[in-house]
Amino acid sequence: MIAVLGAAHAFPPVTQALREPDGLLAAGGDLSPGRLLAAYRSAVFPWFSPGDPILWWSPSQRMVLQPSQVRVTRSLAKAMRNRRYRITIDTAFEQVMRACAAPRDGQNGTWITDEMVAAYAELHRLGHAHSYEFWQDGRLAGGLYGVAVGRMFYGESMFHRATDASKITFVNMAQHLQRHGFGMVDCQMFTPHLESLGAQLISRDEFIARLETSLGQPQPAGMWQESFRNEPSR
Predict the structure, then answer these.
(1) E strands of 79-197, at which residues?
(2) What's the sign of the alpha-carbon dihedral 212, 96, 126, 8?
(3) Running DSSP on this structure, what letter comes out for residue 207?
(4) How confident is the model over 198-210, as a mean pLDDT?
């Protein structure tokens, strides 16, 4: 059995999460800013399919990236040097979310519903959710979004419309967060793609210990107004 959430923004202890399916902790509640922020502070995140109740998860292992350990292959480094692009922050948040929600090869649907878009757009308006946007030839060609609490960044999803666009955005995100003292990026679940970029699995207990250190640290002023441009030499 799992907990059914009421009006309060409290979550049950993550040790009560199911082993199968791994990490399922609770159902119900809403996607209000207060509840979402309480979830992230508690090592919990929402993930559910259209038509299902809101489900809350805290898996026994967590995929995380230490920003200083982001992996840049030789081919990716070459692409980053030789392509003309611009990366902005928080200039097209909802566009990025909707691009992440677009159907992908081999997928029947998306968990990024209109309800999720509205909820995270409100978090963005309140200054908690952020997007990194990859622009090429004036076109939004890739990006990612997530939530920042203290100096902890919770990555939610990324997309690309051009080769390596999401990888380049991810690397720039990691470098940006490292410069501003963020110690960890939560990538939630294992994928080979995230592993190839330097993310690794850690236990829930280790994740929570690192999380507690990062949550209490204030974010540097102005960090979300920065942008990056690459202009290859001719």
Answers:
(1) 85-89, 129-136, 139-149, 152-160, 184-188
(2) negative
(3) H
(4) 97
Strand 200-203 vs strand 61-65: parallel, antiparallel, or unpaired? antiparallel
Plot region of 50 (φ>0 → left; ψ -120 to 50 → alpha; else → beta) = beta
Per the CB < 8 A criterion, the answer to whether 61 and 204 are in contact is yes
**Alpha helices by DSSP H, 89-164:** 93-101, 114-125
Mean per-residue pLDDT over the chain, rounded: 95
Q: Rounded to an integer, what is the distance from CA 115 to the centroid of its chain?
A: 17
Range with the lowest mean pLDDT among 9-18, 42-51, 104-113? Answer: 104-113
Helices and strands (H and E) in the chain: how many: 7, 12
- pLDDT at residue 103, as a whole number: 77
Angle, helices 114-125 vs 93-101, to 10°: value is 160
Specify the amino acid at residue 51.
G
In 217-232, which positions are buried (b, 16+ CB within 10 angstroms) versus exposed (e)? eebeeebeeeebeeee
Rounded to an integer, the average pLDDT of 147-158 is 97
Q: What are the pLDDT digits (tens) for 80-99?
A: 999 999 999 999 999 999 99
Residues 6+ apart with CB under 8 A from 130: 89, 90, 93, 124, 145, 146, 147, 148, 153, 224
pTM over 0.85? The answer is yes
CA distances from 61 to 51, 57, 133 (A): 27, 11, 29
Count of Cβ atoms closer than 10 Å to residue 131 Cβ: 27
